[in-house]
């Protein structure tokens, strides 16, 4: 091959690499500011109504994905009609394709992560951990700290809701005769789970979004470790004195993990390393690395299938906590990767789709540009980023963070880390501020309530402010 052909192919490769970004940049430059147009007002109204229905999900018994997905469709239909009338249909098409691509990458990443979590749950990894903690015979205060620390650590690689529910199960099993302890321990678990997800890209969807956008390198997130620890420790240290010193009644339970449980944990860690390698070393989307990691689970599932041997299936007796024969029989022992994929939290994932397209529509209409000018132009980056944490206590942090990424304000790395921290831990201020809090209100119904959590909000706020101060002090070089 001669040098001219090689040069031509190199130029074509470079052009194709930059073509999507150039198309998005061109679409942005041709976008119409419809923030003062009746269509803009209509779209804001649709988004507001959809979000109100999401907030009332428990009352209406209407899945949160339904109103959000419908609002997303209607918003973009309205946008498309205006742009078609102006002869700019291609501009709107390019913009929505960009939002769908953003969602697609996150969806693939989350599908693999949740598949591994479901597989570990089916292999009884979490049941085994729960039984181990219950059998330890810890005092109430010891259990308070152990569940909090484990929630902090586990949520850095797992989602905060799963982690919080696991620790809540332990707390309720041991503290069933002491509702006061269960309530305070649940508050501590929510704070710990949210704090643990703030310093690792795999710990929370908000950190994942920032990492996948390439704004912050993977290892840079770990500079938030100490601020996250402080966010957890300050309220925990104060709540410690409200925990009774008594020893709960001993409980004896036994859980045997299913074949391959430990190896699946190792494969999950290997998948995480693969995703990091794809993003950092190969400069490819982390989702591609995660999908490669899914093949590890698929191949291991095939190995379990061809080496399957009949063995009695044991389940947990819900009354005694002891293992008992399961009516499911030997078939329930067979490992099926696609079964774990089917058990995804599809309502949450589809809600996320609606959020991404709704917020993307608000940005395309021009509203986020005006909001960015106010927050980061008039208020300044630090007040705006601290305010984000307070907003995320009232509104889900996913749309809040996606809106900030859509605004893409000019900020230092330190400020991007600050908003990642505040968006992640700000939800701890109220029980409804995070998925972990909402899940535990259902799991410990009547014991852990909105008011139970609200009682400790001033203490949690001290931890919030302490984590912000620690970030400025420790990571001052990044500002």
Give the termini distance in whole angstroms. Answer: 49 Å
Structural class: mainly alpha
Shape: globular
- What is the overall number of helices? 22
What does this structure look like?
With 479 residues, this protein is an all-alpha fold. The chain has a domain at 107-346. The protein is built from 22 helices and two strands. It has helices at residues 3-30, 38-55, 57-60, 65-85, 89-122, 125-135, 140-154, 160-174, 179-196, 205-212, 225-239, 261-280, 286-306, 337-342, 346-365, 367-379, 381-392, 397-407, 413-425, 435-443, 450-455, 457-474, and strands at 314-316, 323-325. A two-stranded antiparallel sheet has the order 1-2. The protein is globular, with a radius of gyration of 24 Å. The termini are far apart. It is found in: Membrane. It comes from Methylomonas rosea. It is a multi-pass membrane protein. InterPro entries: Cit_transptr-like_dom, NhaD-like. Pfam families: CitMHS (PF03600).
Strand and helix layout:
Layout: H1 3-30, H2 38-55, H3 57-60, H4 65-85, H5 89-122, H6 125-135, H7 140-154, H8 160-174, H9 179-196, H10 205-212, H11 225-239, H12 261-280, H13 286-306, E1 314-316, E2 323-325, H14 337-342, H15 346-365, H16 367-379, H17 381-392, H18 397-407, H19 413-425, H20 435-443, H21 450-455, H22 457-474
Antiparallel strand pairs: 1-2
Helix pairs in contact: 1-5, 2-4, 2-15, 4-5, 4-15, 5-12, 5-13, 5-15, 6-8, 7-8, 7-9, 8-9, 8-20, 9-11, 10-18, 11-22, 12-13, 15-18, 16-17, 16-18, 17-19, 19-22
């Amino acid at each position: 091959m001669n040098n001219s052909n090689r040069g031509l192919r190199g130029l074509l490769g470079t052009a194709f690499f930059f073509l999507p970004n150039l198309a998005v940049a061109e679409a942005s430059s041709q976008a119409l500011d419809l923030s003062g147009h009746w269509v803009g007002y209509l779209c804001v109204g649709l988004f507001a109504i959809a979000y109100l229905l999401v907030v009332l999900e428990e009352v209406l018994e209407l899945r949160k994905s339904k109103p959000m997905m419908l609002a997303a469709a209607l918003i973009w239909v309205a946008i498309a009609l205006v742009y078609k009338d102006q002869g700019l249909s291609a501009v709107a098409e390019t913009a929505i394709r960009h939002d769908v691509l953003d969602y697609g990458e996150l969806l693939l990443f989350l599908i693999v992560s949740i598949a591994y979590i479901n597989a570990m749950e089916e292999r009884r990894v979490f049941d085994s951990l729960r039984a181990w903690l219950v059998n330890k015979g810890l005092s109430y205060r010891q259990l308070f700290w152990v569940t909090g620390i484990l929630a902090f650590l586990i949520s850095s690689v797992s989602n905060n809701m799963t982690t919080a529910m696991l620790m809540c199960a332990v707390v309720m099993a041991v503290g069933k005769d002491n509702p006061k302890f269960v309530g305070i321990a649940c508050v501590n678990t929510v704070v710990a789970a949210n704090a643990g997800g703030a310093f690792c890209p795999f710990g929370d969807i908000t950190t994942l979004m920032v990492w996948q956008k390439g704004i912050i390198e993977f290892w840079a997130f770990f500079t938030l470790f100490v601020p996250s620890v402080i966010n957890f420790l300050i309220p925990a240290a104060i709540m410690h004195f409200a925990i009774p010193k008594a020893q709960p009644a001993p409980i004896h339970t036994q859980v045997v993990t299913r074949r391959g449980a430990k190896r699946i944990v190792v494969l999950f860690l290997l998948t995480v390393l693969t995703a990091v390698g794809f993003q950092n070393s190969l400069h490819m989307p982390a989702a591609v690395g995660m999908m490669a990691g899914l093949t590890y689970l698929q191949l291991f599932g095939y190995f379990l299938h061809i080496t399957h041997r009949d063995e009695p299936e044991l389940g947990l007796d819900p009354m005694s906590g002891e293992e008992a024969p399961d009516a499911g029989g030997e078939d329930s022992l067979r490992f099926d990767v696609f079964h774990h994929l089917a058990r995804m939290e599809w309502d949450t994932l589809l809600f996320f789709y609606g959020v991404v397209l709704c917020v993307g529509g608000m940005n395309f209409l021009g509203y986020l540009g005006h909001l960015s000018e106010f927050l980061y132009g008039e208020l300044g980056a630090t007040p705006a980023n601290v305010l984000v944490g307070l907003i995320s206590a009232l509104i889900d942090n996913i749309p809040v963070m996606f809106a900030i990424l859509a605004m893409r304000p000019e900020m230092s790395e330190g400020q991007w880390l600050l908003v990642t921290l505040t968006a992640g831990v700000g939800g701890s201020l109220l029980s409804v501020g995070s998925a972990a809090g909402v899940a535990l209100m259902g799991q410990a119904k009547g014991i852990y309530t909105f008011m139970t959590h609200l009682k400790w909000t001033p203490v949690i706020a001290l931890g919030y402010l302490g984590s912000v101060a620690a970030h400025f002090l420790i990571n001052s070089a990044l500002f």
